[in-house]
Amino acid sequence: MEIRVDEQRLRPSKSEVQRLLASSRLAYEEFGWQPQVSLQEGLQRTIRWIGEHLGLYRPEKYQV
């Protein structure tokens, strides 16, 4: 598959955090919270939801 890059939609190099690291450990320790679905299931649900709500997205606009 060819990847096309629209230069107008690229974010400035200094505007992004290059690496994010998250852990739910503190939520578990403080509140006993645990995820109810796996990461894979959560991603599948997210993809399905976005597919069902494409009208909410405007990919032609750059939004922060």
Characterize the structure shown.
The protein has 2 helices and no strands. By secondary structure, the chain is mostly helical. The protein has a domain at 30-56.
Could you give the distance between the termini?
27 Å
The secondary structure category is mainly alpha
Q: Can you write the helix and strand succession as a string?
A: HH
How can the largest sheet be summarized?
none
For the residues shown, what is the average pLDDT? Answer: 87
Shape: extended
Radius of gyration computed on alpha carbons: 17 Å
Ranges where pLDDT stays below 50 over 5 or more residues in a row are none
Helix content: 25-40%
Report the count of strand segments. 0
Strand-residue proportion = under 5%
Q: Please tally the helical runs, counting DSSP H or I stretches of 4 or more residues.
A: 2
